[in-house]
Amino acid sequence: MEGEPVSALFTPALVVDVDKVKRNAQRMRERCHKLGVQLRPHMKTHKTLECADIMTDGSRQCIVVSTLAEASFYADHGFDDILYAYCLPLDKVERCAALSERLDLFQVLLDHPDALEQLRKRPLKGSRQWHVWLKLDCGNGRAGVLHSEPGSLQLAQAIAEADGVELTGVYAHCGNTYNCRGVEQIQTVAQETTNLTLQFMDKLEAFGISCKSSIGSTPSCSHPVQDMGKLSEVHPGNYVFYDVQQSMIGSCSLDDVAVKVLTRVIGHCPHRNQLLVDCGWAGISLDGSGKLPTGYAVIEGHPNLKLLSMTQEHGRVEPTSGPLDYSKYPIGSLLTLIPYHSCATAMMHPVYYVHSEGCLLGKWTPTRGW
Ligand SMILES: Cc1ncc(COP(=O)(O)O)c(C=O)c1O
Q1: What is the CATH number of the domain that holds 302?
Q2: Which residues belong to any copy of the D-serine dehydratase-like domain (predicted)?
Q3: Atom 12 of ligand 1 has which residue's CA nearest to it?
Q4: Structural domain for 135, as ranges
C-alpha cells in the first residue's frame, strides 16, 4: 500500500492528508503560544496515537479525552496528564480510580454533588488526591452547573474542601460557537464565555480558592479573543481535521479540511438523473442533513453535484441542476466527499489511510468504545 496513490484504495475509505493535519496542529500551537495560554488538545475527533503525537508535538502530555476507552488507550501508550472531560459517570468511578492510581496526573470532571460524594467514598491509594475540574455552563446549554447559580460556587467550595480531593480547575466548553456564522459572532461567544469564566474565577478567589480555568472549542480557538490569554488552558479538538461545518462557521477554509471520504461510482440511473456511489451513511455521517446545498457533503471538484440521500452502503448523487453527463462519471470512477462533520465521520471508519499529496504513507488505527 505504501507509496501507492490513494486511488488504489478499496472504497469507501477515509483518507487523511497528513500535511494539512500538521499544518492545522502547528497553527493552533502558534496561536496559543502567542496568546500565552496552555493548549490541551482534545482527542475525540481522531482517537489515534499518531495524530495525538502531532497535536502534542511528541510530548505525550496534556490531553483531553471524551471516553475512558480513549483515556486507557493513551495511558497504555505512555501519555500522561490526561483530563477525562465528561461529567463523571457513576458507573465508571472505579475505572477512574485505577487510572488516577496509575498515572502521574489523571483528572476527572463533574457537575453534581453526587459525583463528588462517590469520589469521597473511594479514596485513592497512597497519598494520592482526586484531581477534579468543575464543569461550568456559560451558555452552551449542555452539561455543567450554571455559572449564575449559587449552587455552582457551593459545589466548587465543596470540591476544594473535600478530603482526598483537589479542585484542579473550572472547565467551560463553548459549544455554542457552533451556532455562529463568521469571526465576529464566534468572537462574541468566545468573549462572553471568557468573561463569565473569569468572573467565576474572581468569585472563587474571594473565597480563597484558586485553581485553573479552561474554555475552548474549535471555532473559538481558531479565532481567539485576547482575553483568552487570561485563562490557564484551552481545549479544542476538531481543528486538527476541520470539516465543512467548520468552514461554514468560519473557523477555517475548505482547503484546511484534512479528511475526505473516497467513494466510487457503482451505478448509473438515467431514469432518475442520478448516480449511485458506494458510500452510504456507514461511511459518512448523516449530520449534514438539510445544511448544505450539496446534500450530505461537498463533492470535491464537482460543485454541480449533490449527495442527495444515503442508505447504509449506497449514496444517490444528482446534479444541482440540468441533466447529468454520465460520460464524466464512468462506473468505477472516484469521487471525493468532504465531510460535513469529521468527528462523526471518522468514528465510522476502523482505519484511516494517511497520505501526502495523494501518495499513501500508511494507516492510523483509532480506539473505539467507551
Ligand atoms: C467537553 C468538550 N471539550 C472540548 C471539546 C472540543 O471542541 P471542538 O470539537 O469544537 O474542538 C468538545 C467537543 O465536543 C467537548 O465536548
Answers
A1: 2.40.37.20
A2: 258-356
A3: 217
A4: 36-238
